[in-house]
Every structure is written in structure tokens, then in C-alpha cells.
Design brief:
This protein has 1 helix and 24 strands. With 459 residues, the protein is mostly beta strands. The two termini are 42 Å apart.
């Protein structure tokens, strides 16, 4: 019986996915502009489609009906990225698409009610990235130091590896969101406009940026006690922000052509890195006490470690992936943001029970002044087949949050598996995520869960 179980496990883990991508993919959609290929254009396109069953926070209404659960299908990401290497020194990057479209939200600005521009319909394309880059110092066999400078709407936002994560090769189904602490407030979907410097010196990699944050103008609630002050995003005539990330790559070196950090290499590289980063922005939030408005700096720090290593016998093609990061966030007193990905619910005015403090739908306390510890790990199951049809990669993640605005710390977890049909180029991911539901600052009323099935294809 034991031997039969082991055989079944090996068969399940062998259906294909050699390396991070597919062996059939090659260089992808790359178009050489000269004979030696030093000038080229590269195009990437990807869709991530989610099907979900969601337990909703108490006090939720979906489509004018009180609801405790809902199911849906949505476009988590529909993207296209192009970059043009005009010479060894010049590069242009553009990245555009849509995010978070479901049956009742995520439509174009102004879409509402019923009809051609009803709720959730016809979302507008927008640029995620658009920058120009110049390689000042190119690396050579003798010259280990490299330096590139660039400017525009960019993703070199420092802080942590996960803050600059690629969305193509996550280990879990998605990022935890708090890795993008400014998301769609003073940034544009994780990006700001500014200038950046990047490069390497041997195994050491650095990224620095100087940016003009997008304007925010939330009005702080006036309170009578200093302890009750709550900072909100209001940066007036915005001060320039500064960000950086520094990393030492002990084993294989990772590419820094683009800013997007790989989530899992599926054992195709031997990677062990430690890193640390920061983000700071003066006078970025405000609070009000007895009519006295005060400005606060945003100061964010992070330290992380990442490993992706083949393990066991080479013929078994097994690999382990692990990532852990600690964030220390200071946005000002009692700052707290509640976020729900593709939130399908709104507040139910007729509800009489204990409402969720975070709000309706699938919202939760995501970002705030305080500390967050996040860890994820996955294991690529063994497979001896020469050309298996699928590889299976179970994973899990754990999050600990301790926010100043909440009197009680929380924990939550994610469990799932990647079914890699063609590496990350074609994969199905199944995940269960549990989130705490605060009914008061010092009271967690239980956990709610989401079951998500994702189909991802990228070319």
C-alpha cells in the first residue's frame, strides 16, 4: 500500500514543467533588429484568470442582496510588456494592461448601473511601467561593476524583493499586497515617477530611486486625544521620495535587466540571497488633534532572505523554494488601510450584527503602522519522466501582523499547489487563504476563507 501511494505521488507530480519556463519556449517573442541580435524587441503577454468561492465579512451585500458567500470569475491581470534594446546601452520599457475585473467591480471610470457601461464593464487600459534607461558602465570580464540610469514611471521601488516581484512566476497564487505598501495611493499600481540607478558589483546588487509621489488628499478625522490621532494619506505639494534595495547573491547571480524579481525558479538555478531595503517620504500623511493638523513622514524598512535550490538526486528534478521578509512600517499614528482583492461586496445597511471592522466583502487590515512578518515555502515534487506533462509544487505561506491601530496582533495562512503544465508559461494554481475578521480593535471574531483557482498563461 505504501509503495502504491509513493508511485501515485510520482505520477501526479510528473504530468511537465522543466525549469522556470518551458524548454519549448526558447527566447519567447523576440525580434532581432540587426544581424547579431544586439538590437532587438521583446514582447511578453499574460493573462491570469481567477475563479473564486469567497466567505464574506459580516454585514456584506452583493448586488443588493445580503450575502455571506459568493462565487465569481475575474480577470486578475491582463497585461502586455514590451522592451526595446536599441543598443547595448539604450533600452525602452513599456508595460500596460488591466487588473481586477469581476462581475460587479473593476469597470471603466464612471461605469455604473445597467447597459454598455454597466458595473464592472470595459475597464480602461493604463500604463504600469514606462521608462527610458541608459547603461553608463557595462560589466566586462575585468570590470565587475555596472551602472544603469533611467527615468519615467518605474518599478525600482526598493524596500524588498517582494515589492519588486514579477507577477509571472509567483510561488503562491499572488503577492500578499502589503509588499506594495503605497498601492494606488501615492503610487500607480506599485510604481512612481522618478529616476533610478541600478547595477552590480560582483555578487552585490543595488537599486536606488528618487521619485515624485502621486498626490493624495484624504482629510484626517479631528480627534480630541493625542492617542486617538489617525494618520491618513495627504501629502500636499509632495516631497520627493527615496527608495533603495541592496542584495547579496551568494550562489547563482540573477538577471537585473528588468526590475521584476522571480518568485520561484523551479530548481533551474541555485539561488540564495539576503537583502534589505527602505522607502522614505517626508510629510506624506496627516493627522488632526483639536483642529491642529500635523504632518508625518513615511518611513518603511524591510529585510528578507530568498532561496531556490535543487535538492535530492538530480534525476528526480526536485527543488525547494523559500522566502521570508520582515517589514517595519511607520506611516504616522494609527495609520491603517483595509484592502480586499477584487472585492465583490458592499456594506449592508440592514445588517444588525457585529460588522467587520475592515468593512464589507473580503476586506482585511492589510497595511499600517506596525510590523509584518511574512514567510512562504514550496517544494517541487519528484519526477523521473524525461518529458512529464505536469509538475506539481505544493506551497504554504504564513503572515503575522501587529498594527498600532489594532490592540491585537493577527496571524493568517495560505495553502495550495501549482500544477505546472509548461513551467510558469502555462500553469493552474489552487489556493485556500484564511484571513482574520476583526469586529473590534481588540477582538477577532473568527476567520473567513477564499478558495481560488487560477489559470495562467504567458508568452
Amino acid at each position: 500500500m505504501k509503495k502504491m501511494k509513493i508511485t501515485l505521488l510520482l505520477l501526479l507530480s510528473c504530468w511537465y514543467g522543466m525549469g522556470q519556463g518551458s524548454t519549448d519556449y526558447g527566447p519567447g517573442m523576440k525580434f532581432n533588429l540587426n544581424e547579431d541580435g544586439s538590437k532587438y524587441m521583446r514582447i511578453l503577454a499574460w493573462n491570469q484568470i481567477w475563479m473564486r468561492s469567497t466567505q464574506l465579512n459580516p454585514g456584506t451585500m452583493v448586488g443588493d442582496e445580503s450575502a455571506s458567500t459568493t462565487t465569481d470569475i475575474g480577470n486578475r491581470r491582463l497585461r502586455m510588456l514590451t522592451y526595446f534594446q536599441l543598443s547595448k546601452r539604450f533600452m525602452i520599457v513599456t508595460h500596460f494592461g488591466i487588473n481586477n475585473q469581476v462581475f460587479d467591480t473593476g469597470g471603466a471610470s464612471g461605469s455604473a448601473n445597467t447597459g454598455g457601461y454597466g458595473v464592472g464593464k470595459k475597464p480602461g487600459l493604463f500604463f504600469h511601467d514606462a521608462w527610458n534607461e541608459y547603461a553608463v558602465i557595462l560589466p566586462t570580464e575585468k570590470q565587475k561593476f555596472s551602472l544603469s540610469l533611467g527615468g519615467g514611471l518605474h518599478y525600482y521601488m526598493g524596500l524588498s524583493r517582494e515589492t519588486m516581484a514579477s507577477t509571472l512566476n509567483f510561488l503562491t497564487i499572488d503577492a500578499p499586497i502589503f509588499n506594495w505598501p503605497l498601492i494606488d495611493n501615492s503610487d500607480q499600481f506599485g510604481r512612481q515617477m522618478g529616476i533610478f540607478a541600478k547595477g552590480k558589483y560582483g555578487k552585490f546588487e543595488y537599486r536606488l530611486s528618487f521619485n515624485k509621489p502621486f498626490a493624495t488628499n484624504l482629510t484626517p478625522t479631528d480627534v480630541t486625544s493625542e492617542d486617538a490621532a489617525v494618520a491618513v494619506d495627504n501629502n500636499g505639494n509632495t516631497k520627493w521620495s527615496k527608495a533603495g534595495y541592496f542584495e547579496y547573491q551568494f550562489l547563482d547571480s540573477e538577471s537585473n535587466l528588468l526590475p521584476y524579481k522571480v518568485g520561484t525558479y523551479l530548481g533551474s538555478k541555485k539561488v540564495f540571497n539576503i537583502g534589505a531595503g527602505f522607502y522614505t517620504n517626508a510629510d506624506a500623511t496627516r493627522s488632526s488633534v483639536n483642529g491642529n493638523v500635523r504632518k508625518h513622514d513615511i518611513n518603511l524598512l524591510a529585510a528578507d532572505v530568498f532561496a531556490d535550490l535543487p535538492v535530492g538526486k538530480k534525476e528526480n528534478k526536485m527543488a525547494v523554494t523559500a522566502y521570508s521578509v520582515f517589514y517595519h512600517y511607520d506611516f504616522g499614528p494609527n495609520y491603517l488601510r483595509n484592502i480586499g482583492i477584487m472585492n465583490p461586496g458592499v456594506a449592508d445597511a440592514s445588517f444588525t450584527g457585529d460588522r467587520a471592522l475592515a468593512g464589507a466583502g473580503n476586506t482585511q487590515a492589510a497595511i499600517g503602522t506596525g510590523t509584518i512578518w511574512y514567510t512562504q515555502a514550496g517544494f517541487l515534487l519528484p519526477c523521473k519522466a524525461e518529458k512529464p506533462k505536469v509538475r506539481v509544487q505544493p506551497f504554504g505561506a504564513f503572515t503575522y501582523k501587529n498594527f498600532e491601530a489594532l490592540d491585537k496582533a493577527s496571524t493568517q495562512y495560505d495553502l495550495g499547489a501549482n500544477f505546472l503544465l509548461e513551467g510558469h508559461h502555462a500553469k493552474i494554481t489552487a489556493q485556500y487563504s484564511a484571513r482574520p475578521v476583526y469586529t473590534a480593535a481588540d477582538e477577532i471574531g473568527g476567520m473567513k476563507g477564499d478558495i481560488i483557482l487560477q489559470l495562467q498563461i504567458y508568452l
